[in-house]
Amino acid sequence: MTEDIATAGVLELSGIDESGVLIATMDNPPANAMNRALIRGLTELFVDLASGTDAPAVVLTGRGDRFFTAGGETSRNSRAPRHLS
Question: How much is the pTM?
Answer without folding.
Answer: 0.68
